[in-house]
Amino acid sequence: MMSLLEIRGLSVALPLPSGALHAVRDVDLTLDRGQSIGIVGESGSGKSMTALALMRLLPRGARSTASRLEFDGIDLGALEDSAFAREIAGPRIGMIFQEPMTSLNPVYTIGRQMTEAAVSRGLLSTSVARKKALHLLDRVGIPDPQMRLGQFPHQMSGGQRQRVMIAMTLMLDPELLIADEPTTALDVTVQAQILDLLDDLRRERDMALILISHDLAVVAERTDTVAVMYGGEMIEWGIADDVLHAPAHPYTQALLHAIPQVGATPSRLAAIPGTVPSLMRAPKGCVFAPRCEHRREDCVASRPPLRAGMRDHAWRCMLKAPPQTSREMEPLHGHGAAEDADIVLAARDITQVFTTRKALFAPKRDITALKGVSLELHRGETLALIGESGSGKSTLARILLGLAQPTSGKVTMLGRPIVELSPIERASFVQPVFQDPYSSLNPRRRLSEIIARPLWLRGDRNAATRDAAVAEAMDLVRLPKRLLHAFPSQLSGGQRQRVAIARALVTRPRALVCDEPTSALDVSVQAQILNLIDDLRAGMGLTCLIITHDMAVVHQVADRVAVMLEGRIVEEGPARRVLTAPESDYTRRLVAAAPRFEANFLQPEVAQ
Amino acid sequence: MSDTEITFAIVEADSEPEALTPGQVFRRRMASHTGFLIGAGLIAVIALVAIFAPLLAPHDPFQQSLSTRMLPPVWSEGGTWDHLLGTDQNGRDYLSRLIYGTRVSITIGLGAATIGLLIGVTLGVLAGYFGGWIDHMVSFLLTAQLALPGLLLAMALVFIIGPSIWVVIGIIGVLHWTYYLVVTRSATQRIRSLDFVAAATASGAGPRQIIWHEVLPNLASQIIVIFTFELGIAILAEASLSFLGVGIQPPTPSWGLMIAEGKQAMFYRPWLVVLPGICLFLLVIGANLMGDGLRDVTTPEGRNG
Questions:
Q1: Which of A275, A277, A432 sits opposite B199 (nearest CB)?
Q2: CA–CA min distance B210, chain A (Å)
């Protein structure tokens, strides 16, 4: 039987000021009707570029070449751009993107956007298109579709918008749907629903599906096959179950080990050292060799051969047999608070009301972000504050840091009310680490200045002692000395987050408030940062408040957990108890959404 | 742990050979931007002419000679090599007057653009950083300024205060700060919401320290771009004022004034108007090309550039 999609030797090169970046190299892909494939990889692995090259949506100047590019027997390589846009993109291949906030046009109604493509192509009459849109909105789980058709995108939540996007692509009944990180911008509970919906739709319509994601565990549960990309190459592919439970490539194994999991005793994560490379020139050997723990000399000499396992499982590796993964569990270094530890940071009955008005003379509207929240942080413990977007957890963090004043309620630091402290006293007490390492460092300052700044503000005018403190802080977060005079733009995301932690620690504060410290990072780098936080807890007895939406991260680092929903704390207790026997329904849903799989792999079978 | 440390070091040493500092990236982009190079070259040449005017000018620009009035340039019939670009109504050497004219234009351009910068950036940063009623007040000032007929107001002010080069600089500067304000206000609003400003606040920094240390360095490139554009605008404003007789006063050589003086003889001695016009065009297009180039060089990758 002829496959629906066949790609052979796809390569993409992006022009940069310093030369061509080989974003995708020599990728093969075959997909049958009704089949689904997950393409998985960290940022910079080329997974999105592969899809964009197929849809001809590459950034300006990028070149893509393929020895074969066939869709249902049509040679896509020979097709004009205009013919491609008319006949393929839309009616035959549909695509949905990561950001539901920006992929819908804010000035048109949902109904108009959904029917426009079909009507303007002359495929459907306006009334038929409208009926179809109604039906599809109903199918993707939008309540009251009749009313929704007349609404604008801003009147819907992120999850609903993503559903609308899916319905919109289905208007033209594509035979292939490409979903590029469709759930990354959404909350975990919504993520599961959207992925299930995509899977159901695929089965229902016998549609092929390419699901692109950074999360191997999430994808593998929902697709037939999985391809793992690294550094622009496909390094392992096969039936999802095989790749997830018997990974053969050292990278896939390392990646699965780096993911924190709910269940079992938390232990140190096996972080992959280094960062994902950006490939300015094609490496001679294996792309993963510089970070591989099984590296041998021949790994860098020539491209690794294709190894075949059972049932279409294949990988590229020098090792004849996949490396054995007998990893002994190293316990966490950090330990929780002593029984009678004093309270470092406490919030009592915090209520925060934001007043907005839509226009100058419009009536005021009150939004209550926090409704009487109380929280205590004991010396040496790590408290995880979890909840979905909009639950008020970041607002609470800003109040605890003294960056915002609550409408009512009191924050105390070691028993002293925060309003009585000067900014400098407060700063030496509690420090923040933010989510986005790209906006938390001033791009115009060198690392040495960024890390030393809190000292200078404190009144430390002695350059020598400042330099010594900076060196010590950089040591603490394992940043190499040679980066001392670098600018943030020269660092990777993980390194930037280390700088942010170093800046927070340089004044030796009692407590850290980390707002989603790893959610903007790749899995392998997240593991490095979580291990670092564990080390700091052990070494400095640091008190941490970690805000996150990821239950697996909570399981990895927290002693105690507080769950927030709509401005209230709905559950609080020891991490083990909350994760294994949650009391509230909401916590139960959050726990259920966390990825679960066995990290002790089966040995993959090697075909002879 | 020690094993991973070692691998880490190896990986890092060979994985980032092309990470450049923002300054290096900036210089590389400038060197490969043709428009910027042409503009900067023009400005550099004109600036050198202004600085070395006494050495370059063949004659005294103020020396009148009634016997050699309105000589045509050397390539026209009746031109002499002694006066390459001819002479004006009072027999003064036109080339020397054009050369000295660069001094007036450049002084006024730089001076007025700097005054505008000080006013506009101060208001813009304050409005963007503090918001609230300060922002409302500054926005009102902006609206009021944009509603004023600039040239008319400038004429009136010069008429009241009395014309001199410093008055002209001051007045043009005071009337040209709106671009600075609009751009710095919105850029400050954006920067203010970034996490590094929150981090500075959490480290105990006050508004003054945040504005100087965190906000202004990130505005620098935008301010430089507007400065070059305003340079061109101020030079043209001076020429307009001088042409109308309320700018630079005779006998000081100013291109705008020279055009005004040549106006009566425009139809039979066209070079009197065309030559200063060409000079103005070259200087202003140089400034604009440089501004365009700087904008291209500084903005493409936004905050990482």
A1: A432
A2: 11
Share of chain A above pLDDT 90, in %: 13
Question: Which pLDDT tens digit goes with each residue over A543-572?
Answer: 899 998 888 888 888 889 999 988 889 999
Q: Which two structure tokens, joined as six digits, stand for B134?
A: 């300060």
Give yes or no for a contact between B122 and B270, defined as CB atoms under 8 angstroms apart.
Answer: no
Pairing of the two strands A365-378 and A343-356: antiparallel
Sign of CA dihedral A598, A601, A602, A604: positive
Interchain contact B195–A (C-beta under 8 A): yes
> What contacts A429, CB < 8 A, 6 or more positions away?
A413, A414, A421, A509, A510, A511
Chain A residues near residue B194 by CB distance under 8 angstroms: 439-440
Whether A502 shows a pLDDT value over 50: the answer reads yes
Mean pLDDT of B15-26: 63
Q: Where in chain A is the domain with CATH 3.40.50.300?
A: 1-92+174-245, 343-446+504-593
In the chain, the amino acid numbered A297 is E
Q: Any residues with CB less than 8 A from the CB of A120 and at least 6 apart, and which?
A: none
CATH superfamily of A343-446+504-593: P-loop containing nucleotide triphosphate hydrolases (3.40.50.300)
Using an 8 Å CB-CB cutoff, list chain A residues near B19.
486, 489-491
The answer to whether B21 contacts A486, with C-beta atoms less than 8 Å apart, is: yes
Q: Does B132 touch chain A (CB under 8 A)?
A: no
Q: Give the pLDDT score at A369.
A: 85
Structure tokens belonging to residue A389: 């977007």
Average per-residue pLDDT in chain A?
Answer: 84
* φ, ψ dihedrals at A92, nearest 5°: -115, -35
Closest CA in chain A for residue B10:
A290
CB contact under 8 A, A273 and B22: no
CA-CA-CA-CA torsion sign (B217, B218, B219, B224): positive
Residue B227: strand, helix, or coil? helix
Q: Taking CB atoms and an 8 Å limit, are B18 and A423 in contact across chains?
A: no
Question: Inter-chain contact B217–A445, Cβ cutoff 8 Å?
Answer: yes
Instruction: Name the CATH topology of A1-92+174-245.
Output: Rossmann fold (3.40.50)
* CATH number belonging to domain B23-59+73-304: 1.10.3720.10
Distance, CA of B117 to CA of B181 (rounded, Å): 9
- Please check whether residue A577 is in contact with residue A284, taking contact to mean a CB–CB distance below 8 angstroms: no
Q: Where are the domains of chain B?
A: 23-59+73-304
Asked whether the beta carbons of residue B203 and residue A431 sit closer than 8 angstroms, the reply is: yes
pLDDT reported for residue A176: 92
CB contact under 8 A, B206 and A423: yes
pLDDT of residue A339: 63
| pLDDT tens sequence across B81-91 | 777 788 888 88
CA-based nearest residue to A5, from A275, A210, A212, A302: A210
- B2 in A contact zone (CB under 8 Å): no
B204/A contact by beta carbon, under 8 A: yes
Q: Of A546, A555, A549, A553, which Cα lies nearest the Cα of A574? A: A555
Query: Residues of A with CB below 8 A from B28's CB?
Result: 17
Find the Cα–Cα–Cα–Cα dihedral A196, A200, A206, A207, rounded to 10°. Answer: -40
Count Cβ–Cβ pairs < 8 Å, chain A vs chain B.
Answer: 121
ipTM of this model? Answer: 0.78
> Which residue, among A300, A418, A453, would best test binding to B if mutated, counting the most B CBs under 10 Å from its CB?
A453
Residue A472 host element (H or E)? helix A463-476
pTM of the model: 0.80
A372 DSSP 8-state letter: E
Asked if A490 lies within 8 A of B304 by C-beta distance, the reply is: no
Q: Do A503 and B199 touch (CB under 8 A)?
A: yes
Please name the member of B8, B20, B205 whose beta carbon is closest to the beta carbon of A457: B205
Question: What per-residue confidence (pLDDT) applies to A298?
Answer: 82
DSSP H/E element including A111: helix A110-120
